[in-house]
Specification:
heterodimer; A: 596 residues; Penicillin-binding protein 2a (Domain 2); 17 helices; 19% strand; extended; B: 388 residues; 1% strand; carboxypeptidase (chain A); Penicillin-binding protein 2 (chain A); PCN-bd_Tpept (chain A); carboxypeptidase activity (chain A); hydrolase (chain A)
Chain lengths: 596, 388
């Protein structure tokens, strides 16, 4: 921009020549400039005023539209808290597979006060303090005499308490209807149900929301008014659940374990008939999650679906199945078991020395780490990863529990050959007992992958879900049966139910690194009947010690197996299984014995 | 140019008489809208102030007749003020500003709070006066004068001075405390500054500053935070003032439940002032509410459009400021009732009950009418080339 001088010299000189007053020129210039500024200013103000007018039009328009929208809706009565207005039972009930109630609703009352309606505040405070020992009369009186016009006193009342409050005859104390989620079986299936709490609260109703377990997983379905009449049927069998819980609790105390879990699953469908985790809790009074300490020791922790443990020798079966499936070995192939097996500076040992070689069946029956490790190396890391992946060990269990979804198995970040060897016998990989149950169901039911589910009547697995061949599956079943008849799980032979299974005893890892030598996780993964498995049962004990012998025994064969046997003895009749006459040899007519 | 004629008695040109000239130049649409609002105000007063009168043990229409007296006085004031020239208006307004500012400043020592927790009133025995109601329009005129003075080459730094004045007055109002009036005052100053040619960037920064102050207030003042929370929560508790107001609007529907049938006025303590729109909606329906809004919109938008042609920056600024002040106050009052804006007590000018509120509104509207009167605007140079 070129600056024009306020006193244009040419014109000033010109004016002087003509004898005019040069200041006039200056004044003229100044006036012109002011006019120009004003004009520009005015032009700008003009657009801004227009903008402002438009804004006001918009503002009034918005409010008019909003008011129109408001006035075209129906008014809701601002009701004062009147007792007796009923809320319909809205959250659907949860039942077991036979329609027995696991969670339902109870109508009860909440208590609130409207101090401005009170006849005698002092008496009301004293009376309430007498009915509810946890309330303090002084404090109540202080709250009643404050300016508040509405205050909650109790969220839930029992009918007796409600009557007692009613008998106070105080008009300023009012009841609001409250729906209460009730778990009539107490601690039974606590980890499956999870629990619920109040969400948004009003005077006349409170929202019940699921906070854990299936209550949380199916929260929308349970709250959906369209489906509220239809109970949610789980795959759980309550009687079986109760029996297992009872036996397991006893077993846990006999074996001096600090925790235990059991999973009973249908081998063909993956339906979970029972899932127990001890210690447990009462979902009617779900405790607050502990803020300190190890969360995996909390009663809220679901050991079966959430707890990741190294499950030990139970994994050997997968290695055996893999080598048979790859044609590397048949059940009678001899495997070198001379120990210790050296791999770099690492040595693999067996519990006992089993001599120079064992047949594949005996590697499983005697539980030889060396033999299994050799097979795994022969099969190779990719093949091992592949079968573990197919068996579901690379993902969290896809069961309908929010807790399970956070428990992806732990495995080495770098999968070396050594990892392959240790994982072949269940060390260096930590999975949940539920993972193990599903994998056992898969390899023993003929080789079709099952998906664990808590819902009744799931889709059956099809040929597309095949993981191993029926023949391999049959060999595995025979090996599992042999483990019980003449191997590490001999205490597990329940007469008539043809139990097969594999024990696993894994040293617990220290939080500081390394392993304890006196703390184990003892697992027994079993199937019954072995010739044509209907059920898979996985029992896990945390730090069991069996003290009846001369020295403390911790191996699964002495701890988890007898507990599992007792469970099978109890629940098999409950599930309507007939004991079978004892036979020397299993017959499996669908598969020929010869292979390779 | 002055013609000097010696010895001849030149008859001073009186021009046409005052009233015909006023009638010819005043914005008659705005005038009609104001009278309409006044009539609606009396009508609603009959509905809304009855419970108050009963509570205070007075005859049912005591407050209505009072309001009518004040209203007529306000209308008279308005007409007189609107006949003044802008120069006169400016002089009186500046004097009035000084008086009102002193009155506001002395409130903490001489005022009463009528048990409402904020010292905003002087009790005169027969009536109470809220000086801040008079301070607002006077401040607008003073600010316009200062801002327009800064247009002159080597004029005073009027914008800066007016800004400092705005902050000072707002601080006085916050002390009462009266956050609503303080906010309104600052907002009106901001709009005037905008019209006076504020740089856009500065406006953006200012808006950000206001937001920041809001966040700060949310953190500091529990009272403020509760109101904002109430506004932001999705559903209204039907037992709050807002809940009752919302329900009243719903209850009324399009044509209302009928004269005298409304219930909300018995429940809301501020039914005759801050929530008068709820009473209107319940008894007379959406129709009357839309009519009220249309009347306010007419006043504001017509005034702004008339000021488009104004050449004198002082008149333009002062007129726009007054129009915006009245419009904002109406928008806020109605917006709160329909929950477009967070809860903030603000009277509906000329409709809500209140002596000083009505008189002050009359003064403000009178000044607005005075500024929007048609006057010669150098149309020739407009035609010849945009003011060159």
């Amino acid at each position: 921009m070129i600056r024009r001088p306020l006193r244009p010299l040419a014109r000033v000189i010109d004016a002087r020549k003509k004898g005019q007053d040069p200041r006039l020129v200056e004044a003229e210039e100044r006036a012109a400039r002011l006019r120009a500024i004003r004009a520009a200013e005015r032009q700008r103000a003009e657009t801004r005023l227009l903008l402002l007018a438009a804004l006001f039009l918009l503002g009034f328009g918005t409010i008019g539209v909003k008011m129109g929208a408001l006035s075209s809706t129906v008014a809701e009565e601002p009701k004062a808290g009147a007792p007796g207005s009923i809320i319909a039972a809205q959250r659907a009930t949860i039942t077991d597979r036979k329609g027995r109630v696991m969670a339902t609703n109870l109508e009860t009352a909440s208590l609130y006060a409207q101090p401005q309606h009170m006849a005698d505040k002092r008496a009301a405070a004293d009376g309430l303090a007498e009915i509810f020992p946890d309330l303090d009369a002084e404090q109540l009186y202080k709250r009643f005499t404050s300016k508040r016009k509405f205050l909650w006193i109790k969220r839930k009342l029992s009918p007796e308490q409600q009557q007692a409050v009613h008998d106070l005859g105080e008009p300023g104390l009012q009841f609001g209807p409250r729906e209460l989620r009730l778990y009539p079986n107490g601690t039974l299936a606590a980890h499956i149900l999870g629990g619920s709490s109040f969400g948004r609260e009003g005077v006349h109703a409170a929202e019940i929301i699921g906070v854990a377990g299936v209550e949380r997983e199916f929260d929308e379905r349970l709250r959906d008014p369209a489906q509220s009449g239809e109970p949610l049927s789980l795959s759980i069998d309550l009687t079986v659940q109760a029996a297992i819980e009872r036996v397991l609790r006893g077993g846990m105390s006999v074996m001096n374990a600090k925790g235990a879990s059991a999973v009973l699953m249908k081998a063909r469908t993956g339906e979970i008939l029972s899932m127990v985790s001890l210690p447990d809790f009462d979902p009617n009074h779900r405790p607050a999650p502990a803020t300190s300490g190890d969360p995996s020791l909390s009663p809220l922790f679901n050991r079966a679906a959430q707890g990741r443990y190294e499950l030990g020798s139970t994994f050997k079966v997968f290695t055996a199945a893999l080598s048979m499936e790859m044609g590397l070995a048949s059940p009678d192939t001899l495997i070198e078991t001379a120990g210790p097996l050296r791999w770099g500076k690492f040595k693999i040992r067996d519990f006992h020395n089993y001599g120079p070689r064992l047949s594949l069946t005996d590697v499983i029956v005697k539980s030889s780490n060396i033999g299994t490790a050799r097979l795994a190396i022969a099969a190779g890391t990719p093949a091992q990863k592949d079968i573990l992946n197919k068996l579901g060990f690379f993902e969290p269990v896809p069961v309908q529990l929010p807790e399970a979804g956070r428990s992806k198995p732990l495995m080495p970040a770098k999968w070396s050959d050594l990892s392959t060897m240790t994982i072949s016998y269940g060390h260096g990989i930590a999975a949940t007992p539920l993972h193990l149950a599903a994998a056992y169901a898969t390899i023993t039911n003929g080789g079709l992958k099952v998906t664990p589910t808590l819902l009744k009547d799931p889709d059956l697995p099809t040929e597309a879900d095949r993981v191993i061949s029926p023949a391999t599956s049959m060999h595995v079943r025979r090996m599992l049966r042999a483990v019980v008849t003449r191997g590490t799980a001999s205490l597990g032979d329940v007469e008539g139910y043809e139990v097969g299974g594999k024990t696993g005893t894994a040293d617990k890892p220290k939080p500081t690194g390394g392993y304890y030598d006196d703390k184990v996780i003892a697992t027994f993964a079993s199937i019954f009947p072995a010739s044509n498995p209907e059920y898979v049962l996985v029992v896990t004990l945390d730090e069991p010690v069996e003290m009846t012998g001369s020295e403390p025994r911790r191996t699964a064969g002495w701890t988890a197996v007898p507990v599992a046997a007792e469970i099978i003895r109890r629940v098999a009749p409950l599930m309507g299984m007939r004991p079978r006459p004892k036979r020397e040899e299993m017959d499996d007519p669908t598969v020929t014995l010869a292979r390779n | 140019m002055t013609d000097m004629v010696y010895g001849a008695l030149v008859e001073a040109d009186q021009g046409e008489p005052v009233i015909p000239r006023w009638w010819r130049t005043v914005d008659r649409w705005t005038l009609a809208a104001i009278f309409g609002l006044f009539a609606i105000g009396i009508l609603l007063g009959m509905a809304a102030s009855v419970p108050l009168a009963q509570r205070n043990g007075l005859s049912d229409f005591y407050y209505v007749s009072r309001q009518a007296v004040f209203g007529v006085a306000a209308l008279g004031t308005m007409c007189v003020v609107s006949m003044m020239s802008p120069l006169m208006v400016r002089r009186y307004a500046v004097l009035g500003f000084v008086a009102a500012a002193i009155a506001v400043a002395l409130l903490p020592f001489l005022g009463t709070d009528f048990g409402k927790g904020a010292v905003r009133w002087y009790s005169l025995g027969f009536a109470s006066v809220q000086p801040s109601e008079f301070l607002k329009p006077a401040f607008v005129v003073l600010s316009a004068w200062l801002m327009s003075a800064s247009y002159d080459l080597s004029g005073p730094p009027g914008r800066l001075i007016s800004f400092m004045l705005a902050v000072l007055i707002a601080a006085l109002l916050v002390l009462q405390p009266d956050f609503g009036q303080a906010t309104l005052l600052l907002a009106v100053w901001g709009v005037m500054y905008f019209i006076a040619g504020a740089p856009m960037l500065l406006m953006v920064v200012l808006a950000a500053g206001v937001m920041g102050a809001g966040v700060l207030a949310y953190g500091q003042s529990e009272h403020f935070a509760r109101r904002i929370d109430g506004f932001l929560s999705a559903d209204v508790d039907p037992r709050t003032q807002l809940g009752y107001a919302t329900n009243a609007i719903r209850e009324g529907g399009f044509f209302g439940v009928g004269v005298g049938e409304g219930k909300v006025k018995w429940v809301l303590p501020d039914a005759h002032t801050d929530f008068i729109i709820a009473v209107a909606a319940e008894e007379f329906g959406l129709v009357l509410c839309l009519a009220i809004m249309a009347l306010f919109a007419t006043i504001v938008i017509r005034s702004l459009l008339r000021l488009l042609r104004e050449r004198d920056p002082f008149i333009r600024l002062a007129g726009a400021g007054l129009a915006v002040m009245i419009g904002m106050q109406a928008l806020i009052n109605i917006g709160v009732a329909v929950r477009v804006l967070p809860a903030k007590g603000m009277t509906l000018p000329f409709v809500s009950y209140g002596g000083s509120s009505v008189i002050a509104a009359g003064l403000a509207l009178g000044m607005l009418l005075a500024f929007t009167r048609r006057r010669p605007q150098d149309d020739f140079s407009d035609i010849l080339g945009r003011g060159k």
